[in-house]
Amino acid sequence: MPTGSQNTQRAASNAALCSYTPVERADPPLWETTLWPHRSLGAVGFRNVMIIAACGLILPAIPFMLAGAGIFWLAFAALALGLLWLAIVQNNRQGKLREHVSLWPDQIAVERHELNGEVKRWSCNPYWMRSALKKSGGPVKNYLTLIGADREIELGAFLTPEERSALYQEIETAIRNLGQSRA
Q1: Contact present, 78 and 43 (Cβ < 8 Å)
Q2: 18 pLDDT exceeds 60?
Q3: Under DSSP, is residue 156 helix (H, G, I), strand (E, B) or coil?
Q4: N- or C-end of the chain: fewer Cβ atoms within 10 A?
Q5: Are 176 and 121 in the same domain?
């Protein structure tokens, strides 16, 4: 699952991840996680896909080149490879989306980094916050929202239904543990 959950001990020992918290606070969060879209095609995979596609488009052109009509086939192959490259680059660009959730005894904060560089922030008191997982009837299966401070925000829209369900369980457990630590 493309998330990075941390408990207090790991958060305190990992300064690089703690510096990413959406709210400037002196105390480390009791629980935090960073969400990002799954990317299955890395740089090596991208290169391999482009090589295989190029070979698959150029090898059939050899008989046409020998007959003198290869230039038309090569133009088609170049266009197809260019479109494939653009599609993969756009997909990788969308992989830069991030959501960071942090929980303290008196605050839960969400920071979403959009593709255009815009940063959206939401926070409220966890005592008054409610998380909801709509198994059906939402825009997607297992639609996860956080409700509080007179707003309802969507969380993990890019995750799979199973990942949203697991994230919901993590958030509920963290809130429940927070309530037990107050008693």
Answers
A1: no
A2: no
A3: coil
A4: C
A5: yes
Tokens of 183: 């008693």
Q: Is the pLDDT of residue 111 over 90?
A: yes
Domain for residue 1, yes or no?
no
**Alpha carbon distance 183, 78 (integer Å):** 67
Q: Mean per-residue pLDDT for 59-87?
A: 85
Boundary residue ending a domain (94, 127, 161): 94
- Give the integer Cα–Cα distance in Å for 73 and 111: 49
Same domain, 109 and 89: no
Provide Rg for the chain, Cα atoms: 23
How far apart, in whole angstroms, are the C-alpha atoms of residue 110 and residue 102?
Answer: 7
Domain membership of residue 68 as a residue range: 43-94
User: Please, what's the b/e burial string for 22-60 (b: 16 or more CB within 10 A of its CB; e: otherwise)?
Assistant: beeeeebbbbbbbbbbeeeeeeeeeeeeeeeeeeebbee
Strand pairing category for 119-124 and 130-134: unpaired
